[in-house]
Design brief:
With 240 residues, the chain is α+β, with helices and mostly antiparallel strands. 24% of the residues lie in helices and 36% in strands. It contains six helices and eleven strands. It has helices spanning 31-43, 56-64, 103-106, 126-138, 155-163, 211-219; strands at residues 2-12, 15-25, 68-73, 79-86, 109-117, 145-150, 167-175, 182-191, 204-207, 222-227, 233-238. Bound molecules: coenzyme A (COA). Coenzyme A (COA) binds next to strand 5, helix 4 and helix 5. Residues 41, 50-51, 114-117, 122-127, 154, 156-157, 160 line the site of coenzyme A.
Length: 240
Amino acid sequence: MILNQGFIVKRKSEQRQIEPFEMRLVNAKELNQVIDLQHHVYEHLPNKEVLYLDTKAEMLEDLYNGALIIGVFNKQDRLVSYRYVSFPGYEQRNLGRDIHLSKQELHKVVHLETTLVHPDYRGNRLQSLTLNKAVELIEDMNMRHLICTVSPYNLFSLYNIMSAGLNIKALKKKYGKAEDDGLWRFILHKDLKKEQNVNLSDVVLLKMDHLKEQRKLIDSGYIGYHLSKESQIIQYAHTQ
Ligand SMILES: CC(C)(COP(=O)(O)OP(=O)(O)OC[C@H]1O[C@@H](n2cnc3c(N)ncnc32)[C@H](O)[C@@H]1OP(=O)(O)O)[C@@H](O)C(=O)NCCC(=O)NCCS
């Protein structure tokens, strides 16, 4: 089933070409394309820390358990972008645990897992387009919490995800073998059933890569609700 279609700009060196695209769910047989794209994007990253690689086996198992991979295919039917969305239920990996959601809320958590765009196709707002589609697809599923992790060194991803209304609720190391091991990640959350208002009389500004100061703020109840792309400064405030 086609979820969306239209035109995207492919940029290669100085050249720009307009191409048709098609958005549809990726099936298990197409997982090799997902893994190939993931490795291509990873190889071209200046800072490898921003992307935690998923294995094919993990994704396959997750797909059989109801996860979705929304793919964007170019005119040659090659995958140029995808967004991986999963439903962790009561599993230990549920990020709702990191932001202290109650047990009964955990099964209403949707994980926005990896999302990436081939370097030649960046700038088409595909990260936002596939996020909107994900929200549309889960509309009838009685899900409530969108949660994801983003590296504090990943300006483009953090900007896009915060612009979609997800707020920073935690900052900790993830994907390691022990508590204090792994990669630094913000944990961002959006409650689809309740708007989050902040107290604007008490705003604190911090650079996105100043980790120690942000951890202190978050520990004292602040949430990060806005990022300026130009200054890379995050605005923190208490919730109302
Ligand atoms: C994060 C990411 C998915 C965003 O891609 P996107 O949806 O194409 O981004 P946008 O369309 O919002 O881009 C807006 C602008 O930022 C630029 N931009 C986006 N990502 C960029 C990047 N990684 N490096 C440099 N510039 C980038 C775009 O070219 C565009 O510039 P323009 O306004 O001059 O046209 C993409 O950068 C990416 O795949 N990064 C690597 C993987 C990753 O970090 N994923 C997130 C963690 S799972």
